[in-house]
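Input record (one chain):
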Amino acid sequence: MTKDEINGRKQALKTNLDVFIRDALTSKPKIDMLMAHYTMKGLYHYSFYNSMMIASQGGTVCNSYKRWQDAGRQVRKGEKANIVIFRPSGHKVKQTNENGEEEEAWVTSGDRFFLSSVFDIAQTDGKPLEYEHNTAGASPVTFDRAKQASEKLGFPVQIKYMDGARGSTDGATVSINEASNDIDRVKTMFHELGHCLLKSTGEAGKAHNLKEVEAESVSYLCMSALGIKYELHADYVANYAQNHAGNINIDGILKAANKIIRLFE
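The corresponding structure, as predicted from the sequence alone:
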């Protein structure tokens, strides 16, 4: 492909991605498709933005030819890698790890990226994939770990009794109701962090419901990425977002969710 053709394809992918994101935030099945590969054991290695790239092109769980082989699956003969992602340019170097052993590491070259083709699981056969988290009643992320993530982002957390509310924030400190169970505290923590990172608590001129949609979108993306099963807020996002789809701060939601998710990698 020529340089102009590559740039044209990048622009087309970006346009498609923007449309997909707006649509996905009002559709629980599409959000679940977006997060599919996060829930598979041993497969997660893509950035949050590449997850969206894959889903916007109709993919679910994708890998390179070699990575599928490493996972015990084989790309079927004749299949074409029609889904593309962005990969950072760079090179391998040898370094010594903390155990004194020599290993190879990938060093990126600045902020340059190139398009790389991958195969969807539907194009492969072999060993069945396993879910990372199989127990619906237990959270794979403890509240203490979520609390540490909040504090790393610069938002201290206090636990206290709150009459009727699960949590709240003034944009600087997060409060969580001591009466909530662990999984609900984690979900609430992500919601309040959404407010903090979006700086929506003091944002004048924006409807309260819209602020809640954005914070809850952050929470749902984080919960989905970390394999935490919590259904109520998916409907909450869909119901409200349908009325505010044109005004939602899509870029802010994605950046906030990405900041939180990266702390758990």
